[in-house]
Amino acid sequence: MSLIDDWDDQPYALYAPHETTSSVYASEVGDVRAVNDDSYEDTGDGEPTSSSGAQFSLDDMRWSGREYGGIRHVAAAMDTLYVATDRGKVIRWSADSNEMRTIDIGRGRGEDSIHRLFLDPTGNHLLITLEMCETLYCHVSSLKAKALPQMKGVLAESIAWDMDSIRDTSTGDFLVGSSSGIVYKACVENGKDKSFKALFELTDGAEAPVLGLAIERFDGSGATKFFVMAATTTRYYQFVGGPTLDALFAQYVTSPQFIELPGDLAHSELRIFRRAGCRASSFVWITGPGIYSGNLVFGSQTAGDSVVSDFKLLPYPTSSAPLSLLPTEFHIILAYKEHITVLNQLTEQVVKDFNVAALAGASGSGIKRGEQLLGIAHDSETSRCWAYSSSSVWEIFISHEDEDVWKHFLELKQFDSAFSYCRSDEDRDVVQKAQADHFFSLGRYELAARVYATTSQPFEDVALKLQRAGHADALRTYLLAKLDSLKITQVTQHTMLATWLVELYLDALNKYSDRSDSDSQEAYDELLHEFQQFLRNHSEHLDKDSTYSLITSHGQSHMLLFYADLNEDFDRIISYRIQHGDWSDALD
């Protein structure tokens, strides 16, 4: 333990004030010992492991609906999976109870007719798009899908749901990205298509399908605005504005804003990450050169401004692009033909790789010969996710994802983020000490002092460090913070720190009084007021004789009288007045 904790509260003789130096105080007063900064160690097992402490595993869901045909597409929400098969069937499958119900999509629709499924985050509204450019709708309360006549002739490749407008019986306005590169606005109410309208045509030249869409509302400059992202295989577009979706897209008709990354991929995918109940915070996009990712920062943006920040292009861990991907808070899950690979977004390293093909031989739960993974379905409200092939579905379990994330932020000197992800007081202490050291290295001594005061760094180490830096103001800041943190029973420690602070205040006052400029006078007056308030607050912790001696040795006669008056030491005041010939004041 440091000396401040080991000091016995017993009678003692104070050092003579004029002989007391800062180094003496630093050697006699201490704080609690700093905890060890446990270094991070590699597991050394030869396997790709999560350096962030996250754990990933696969669980075969034992899909038992093979009688309905091979799986073609899966959508998920509220712990329920909707599975489209290559025999034109749609199955509602409870992920927990394993109950399966068949959705009736009507007669006359042949096998292999279902293109994609889209399920809103509440799980109430299901859209079924067919290869024949028709869209069906099914509410969660029904097992029968109905055609949406206004959408006939449009093949939907992507959907963006506006969470703020969804109701139990209404989808609210949502966006549809078509195979011909057109963005539509649609609304389904009580099972019927209330509206369907083209809003914008992407300018990729040829008819490039809109393979990814995202929408977010945010408050900017006192008005609700929309942010929309739309992606093709080579471009992603940003739209910012409002107050309606129509007005939003109208601002970009002549000047669309996009980023282009050339490539020859036949597929792409745009996905956003948001914590349940929160606004979207990041996105990932499959492109030819790699995974394009960025953060989403909402503020006062207007038309033409960008919401994307900290964007980067991550190389693929293999020579090819994944078939599908899903961002989590700190990782990206990639689905390849026979592998599920997990990429750490902070380190950009592979931390887990599942060879799904090998599972077939090992446990019988992998993909069958000639099969391949098709995609990843995500339940944004429960954060559950599933990978699927034509005959199997696996749930991907993620645990302790943020366990050691603070260490990565610490390496990047992003101290606030590191602190927010710490799980223990010991970890928070490591972060704060590192932040204090960083401020100190930059010469920001007072900031360093404030942070040091919150850590378990030994008192004597910090005090001497600040003293040797020659920054008395920072040392005073540190001592004041440590004084305020002492327990009421630590009487001796209170006295030692308060006495040291008296000396520091007096030294600083003398330095300012030696100068004649107006700034120094203003600083002197401010410091004098602070010192007087300090004496009022801590007079009970000061030894009177030692404090009088300190003030006298620094020649601060007015402070001597102030302190005497504070202690109602009228005999000392009268004696001082008489010694200095102030007869009238002495009589008063």
Taken as a percent bin, the fraction of beta residues is: 25-35%
Proportion in helices: 25-40%
Q: Between the first and last Cα atoms, what is the distance in angstroms?
A: 52 Å
Number of strands: 28
Approximate shape: elongated
Spatial ordering of strands, largest sheet: 1-28-27-26
Q: Output the radius of gyration.
A: 35 Å
Structural class: alpha+beta
Our count of helices gives 16
Average of the residue pLDDT scores: 85
State the low-pLDDT regions, or none.
Answer: 7-52
Major sheet: size, sense and barrel closure?
A: 4 strands, antiparallel
Question: What this model shows, in words?
Answer:
It is a single chain. This protein is an alpha+beta fold and 588 residues long. The chain has 16 helices and 28 strands. The strands form seven sheets. It has a four-stranded antiparallel beta sheet, with no helix packed on it. A hairpin with a 3-residue loop joins β11 (174-178) and β12 (182-189). The protein starts with a helix and ends with a helix. Residues 7-52 have low confidence and may be disordered.
Task: For the structure shown, list the relevant keywords.
single chain, 588 residues, alpha+beta, four-stranded antiparallel sheet, 16 helices, 28 strands, 28% helix, elongated
